[in-house]
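Lines hold sequence, tokenised fold; shown next:
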Amino acid sequence: MGITNSNKQVNATSITCNETFKVTLSLTASPDIVSNPTDIVLILDRSGSMAGSALANLKNGVKKFIDIIDESTNSSHDGQIGGGSRIGIVSFATTATQDTQLITSVNDLKIAVDNLSASGSTNHADAFTKALQLFDPTSANAKVMIMFTDGLTTAGGNPNTVATLAKSQGIIIYSIGLFGQDGIDVNALNDWSSDPNSAYVVITPDNEELENIFADLAKNISKTGATNIVLTDTINDCFEITDIDTPNIGNATKLNNKTVEWKIDELGVTGSEGAILEFTAKHIGPCTGEIKVNEDIAYTDSEGNVVTFPDPSILVECNDTVITEPCPTKVDLEITGCKDSIEFDAGDIELTSLGRIVQIDTTIKNVCPNKRVALAVMLNEVDDFDVEYKRGFKVLTIPAHTQNTCQDILIKCIKFVLPEDLNVTNSFNMMCTPRKFRVSFIANYIDYDFNCCDTVLTNLS
């Protein structure tokens, strides 16, 4: 049955700065079908869209599946499924039929498959219901459903309800989808099947692939737990690995201060078996708050088991917390063509600290054409005794205008930021108290046409 469980846990929900915590990795694998008897129900679509080569290839695939299970349970094609395992056949169209019970006779199973004919609609809900009824709730056998279909649900109730009930009873559900005349609902197959979908759902557009798909599935169900396991766990940069415990199975190596590699030669070969590795990690650096422990975790084995792990988090709380004001969000804008100006709405900005912004407008009188102006703006704050305190200085380049005559130029929105802790009034140093300011300007042309001529001496006679 392969890897049946994988997990990653931490032993704390929160830690302080530079504190350590334990990480536990665990794997469980079950042995092959010989020592782990399994009841398997094949649920086969025989609706009208299956007529022709699709049904023929389905039959070949299912019979191949039966042969592989036969051989894997007793090491020979003796016509009887051994080791306590059994197979049942349910087929469906407008309604579903229990074509066999859970039996061991390979011949009877193949006869039921050969007798299938295509017609009618597609009732997945009744198919799951009839399949669920075949299982004995008191049996200790593992339980597997394999749903094959080539189309959408066109009859009956909601199949999700029955599939969910089956999974709640510990039944593993595989789904094989063939793109038929009406397409296939991949999301539905994912919903019906066990997790992860990548391990329990197969979709093909080619009915000639069905024999190989069923053969691979039979090998997966009957295979040894797992061999040549390599698990590589890399933790978040906010932590480092300080110590690795010896695992109960296999060997673990610290590749660097972020990564541990765990190798297991075999797991779950003769019985259901669990492996555990623990290592200690320590918080480092300035990271605080809720932090994911995982950076990356990779798993491989010779059987191709697909394994997923949880992504635990841990809350890091530091007594001396340094809070920096975030950088402002940048807004991109573009001036195209020969435009001298644009109007642009940059959106909203929130006040992030106490203070004021003074926005000043001024008019420069009688500016001549084609001459740039340099403008200096000096802002002072004035206390109750008329003493001035410097608060800001700006120098602006005012672009030249191209009118025919001298013009008054209005300069708008000259901004100064004034933190509230610089308030020099005798009022309480609180937001919204009155503050007094005095502004000065200096302006002059940048461009001019003056050329100083050299002194010329002329002899007079």
About this structure: Helices lie at 53-74, 106-114, 124-134, 159-168, 186-192, 197-200, 210-222. Confidence is low (pLDDT under 50) at residues 320-325. The longest strand covers residues 355-367.
